[in-house]
Amino acid sequence: MNEVDSFDLNDVHLAAPHTRFLVQATQKKANIIAGQTQAIHHAISSVYHAQVTLTESYRNLSSVLQSTASGCAELSEPGEQYKQFNFQFVSIMDEVIELHQAMCTDFQSSVLDRLQGYVDFFSVYLLRGRTRLWFNFFSIPFQFRREYERTATMYYGYLNQAERLREIIPLLTMVGFVERYAQHMKTMAKLTSSEMAVTLLELIQSTLQRKLDDESIMSTRFTNRADELRFESLSKFCSDPWLLTPDMSGDLHPNIAPQPNRKLQSKCGRLLMRTRVNLVWRWVEVFCHTQAGNLMSQQYGEVRRSVLSV
Fold first, then answer.
1. Is the pLDDT higher at 14 or at 232?
2. Rounded distance, CA 41 to CA 164, Å?
3. CB within 8 A of 219, min separation 6: which ones?
4. Does 123 share its domain with 267?
5. How many CA within 13 A on the CB side of residue 265?
6. Among 77, 265, 282, 284, which is disulfide-ready with 71 (CB 3.0 to 4.6 Å)?
7. Is residue 247 assigned to a domain?
């Protein structure tokens, strides 16, 4: 680590102009490389924190899906088949969460912590040696020249090492990233391609398709019924058809109300009657007719008729 590549050992104590110029140029390059290393470390940290967030999101998804398998005061218990599917899926999610946690730990120790060591190298060794560089070697007392030469030599070595790390740090990042994710993807593929996962997926797909078909049928039936009601005659919904407009398609007539025929000897028809059953009021359709001056009523399913009091 301490060998000198770009600087000659004799240049340490010469304090020559070309040595100063070379040190300045190398320092600028080292500062640029330090900035690149800091940026790589920041980007890898973002990837690491994103993986941690993804792990927590998986855990939250598993918890939310697991809660749908239990009933509550407002919802009844779901079907046993759904409970079984939910339990198996949550079991797979637990394994996925463990894999992501292991990958995050491995990623931090093998990539992130290693980059942090290089960040510390640039911020500690190079900055600490910078204040000791521009002394005139021959102006230093004799008893301190050996320490100065040793310190300057180490600092020059760190500058040269910074130049070599220009490509080493990105390459280490690439290798660590690809190796960690390749291992993670291989383990995930092994988990998702297991016999249990494949069987569960096929069962869920078939059940889902059946429920989607039922939903499509019910939705079509509902839509058709709604369309039929748009063209239904208003006489079906009005207890007094004579209040309707002549074309039977508009709103109720606001002003004109023809007088009923009072000379009829008999009258029959269907009316809605409000009745009370088990303390609950409801409307039922009854058949009404006149007989011997009385208004008789008869509900569906009844044999006898009764006098309707008005």
1. 232
2. 18
3. none
4. no
5. 0
6. 77
7. yes
Q: How far apart are CA 284 and CA 286, in angstroms?
A: 6
User: At 2, is the pLDDT very low, low, confident or very high (cuts 50, 70, 90)?
Assistant: very low
Say if 226 falls within a structural domain.
no
Question: Rounded to an integer, what distance in angstroms lies between the CA atom of residue 287 and that of residue 297?
Answer: 6
* pLDDT given at position 131: 46
39 in any annotated domain: yes
Q: Please tell me the total count of domains within the chain.
A: 2
d(CA 53, CA 46) in angstroms, rounded, equals: 10
Please, which contacts does 292-299 make with residues 24 or more away whose CB atoms are closer than 8 Å? 297/271, 297/273
Distance CA 107, CA 4 (A): 33
pLDDT of residue 256 exceeding 60, the answer is no
- Which amino acid makes up residue 60? N
* Phi-psi category of residue 232: left, alpha or beta, with phi > 0 → left and psi -120 to 50 → alpha: beta
Short-list 45, 27, 46, 39, CA closest to 170? 39
Whole-number Å distance between alpha carbons of 58 and 61:
5
User: Are both 272 and 139 inside the same structural domain?
Assistant: no
CATH number, position 92: 1.20.1270
Residue 60 lies in a domain: yes
Tell me, yes or no, whether 178 and 248 share the same domain. Answer: no
Report which residue type is found at 35: G
Residue 12 per-residue DSSP state:
G
pTM for this entry: 0.60
The partner residues of 298 in beta bridges, in order of sequence, read 287
| Residue 271 contacts residue 286 (beta carbons within 8 Å) | yes
Task: Return d(Cα 149, Cα 26) in angstroms, integer.
Answer: 18
- Whether 246 shows a pLDDT value over 80: the answer reads no
Compute the distance between CA of residue 256 and CA of residue 259 in angstroms, rounded to an integer: 10
